[in-house]
Amino acid sequence: MMLNSKHRSWEIFDRIAPRYDMLNRILSGGMDILWRKRVIKFLPLGRKLQVLDLATGTADLVIELCKLDRVVAVKGLDLSKEMLNFGNEKLNAHPNGSKAYLEVGDAGSIQYDNDLFDVVTMAFGIRNTPDPSQVLSEIYRVLKPDGKVIILEFSLPKNRLIRFFYLLYFRHVLPILAGILSGDHEAYVYLNQSVEAFPYGDAFCDLICQAGFSKVRQTRLTFGVATIYDASK
Ligand SMILES: C[S@@+](CC[C@H](N)C(=O)[O-])C[C@H]1O[C@@H](n2cnc3c(N)ncnc32)[C@H](O)[C@@H]1O
């Protein structure tokens, strides 16, 4: 496959699935766990929630969602069967895992009816899809009229000095380290390029607005290395 093509990016994840969790922990210094826990803080309070998690991968965010009493059911969709296999193993071992159901599905063409979910989440997934605007339209369609979208994605620090050192790590150290640990250097070169090419911050907020959402907000995490976007239907 062409590694610069987002049209079949899940094939990369099929390849790296056995080492995906381990690599996330090492390459982010464990920050990815904290960032997903922050996503949970953006969920609406005071009512029962049916949640859809797109590009769910190995179900790390699904597991965080299942821990909450007010989350009654979680559907997780991903195009990589291998990532879902690892996700299902983790859910089977988790006491609240039975609230969740994972299935193969495309975030750009969601197989569910309109107005079904209270919340749609997506962590580190939307930059890997060929058409983020199409994904946002699909999220809007499947959300209930008062539903909420919460998206976690990589971004770049605003501060020039921090950005300089971060890009040094990100462009030169991370692909080599990830290549050695995963045995798949090419995959991590693609993943890095996908982060730098993604319209983050205000540009991504504009895309969310264009999909019809209101109350669009962005919250930068860890010097802006990642950002949570949330908005209402
Ligand atoms: C970086 S992983 C993120 C996984 C998980 N959300 C997490 O927080 O670790 C990106 C995931 O997006 C999936 N993906 C890529 N394109 C997709 C699409 N069009 N629809 C659904 N999933 C997709 C990949 O298979 C991969 O599992």
Architecture overview:
The chain is α/β, with parallel strands linked by helices and 233 residues long. It has a single domain (10-232), classed as Rossmann fold (3-Layer(aba) Sandwich), CATH 3.40.50.150. The protein has helices at residues 10-27, 31-40, 60-66, 81-93, 132-142, 160-182, 185-197, 202-210, and strands at residues 49-54, 71-78, 100-104, 117-123, 143-154, 214-221, 226-232. Helix 1 packs across helix 6 (160-182) and helix 2 packs across helix 3 (60-66). The N and C termini lie far apart (37 Å). S-adenosylmethionine binds next to helix 1, helix 3 and strand 2.
List keywords for this structure.
45% helix, binds S-adenosylmethionine, 233 residues, 7 strands, 8 helices, 23% strand, seven-stranded mixed beta sheet, alpha/beta, Rossmann fold
